[in-house]
């Protein structure tokens, strides 16, 4: 397989870590014997970090937040790698604390904005598919924010 056909294959399957692994495996048979130096040849540090599971909470608020996340329905839509949350409707929240924005770039990722988003996403982004959790006690919503903000 030539380098050009490998790239076309990657475009066809959408790139990503599987494609990166395939490209790396196929590159060893090239005429120079050296792996290609293109960015697609090896996972980046950011991609490697993003693939890691979420760290376990270390505070009481974080523990309550994780419990809340896994028991009130969040896990039905969202995934957090390293937990039983395996939803596929909403975004992967494994490293949400490291994001600069929330709600598809609508709001900055601050504890206050995350709390408001969890409480009433429709007030921030009308038509959002996420339900509001204003009926959840404030202590649980604050704990949920503490847990999510720690996911870096």
Features of the shown structure:
single chain; globular; 47% helix; 2 strands; Immunoglobulin-like; 3% strand; 152 residues; mainly alpha
Structure description:
The chain is mainly α and 152 residues long. A hairpin with a 4-residue loop joins strand 1 and strand 2 (107-108). The protein is 47% helix and 3% strand. The two termini are 39 Å apart. The protein has helices at residues 3-13, 16-27, 45-51, 60-71, 74-77, 111-119, 121-124, 138-149; strands at 101-102, 107-108.
Give me a quick take on this structure:
The chain is mainly α. The chain has eight helices and two strands; from the N terminus they run αααααββααα.
Q: What is the total domain count? A: 2
Which CATH class of the largest domain applies here?
Answer: Mainly Beta
Which residues sit in consecutive blocks of at least 5 with pLDDT less than 50? Answer: 1-38
CATH-wise, what's the superfamily of the largest domain?
Cupredoxins -  blue copper proteins
Corresponding CATH architecture of the largest domain: Sandwich
Rg calc: 20 Å
- Report the biggest beta sheet as strand number plus sense, adding barrel if it closes: 2 strands, antiparallel
Overall mean pLDDT score?
80
Instruction: Predict the CATH topology of the largest domain.
Output: Immunoglobulin-like
Number of helices: 8
| Proportion of residues in helical segments | 40-55%
Terminal residue distance: 39 Å
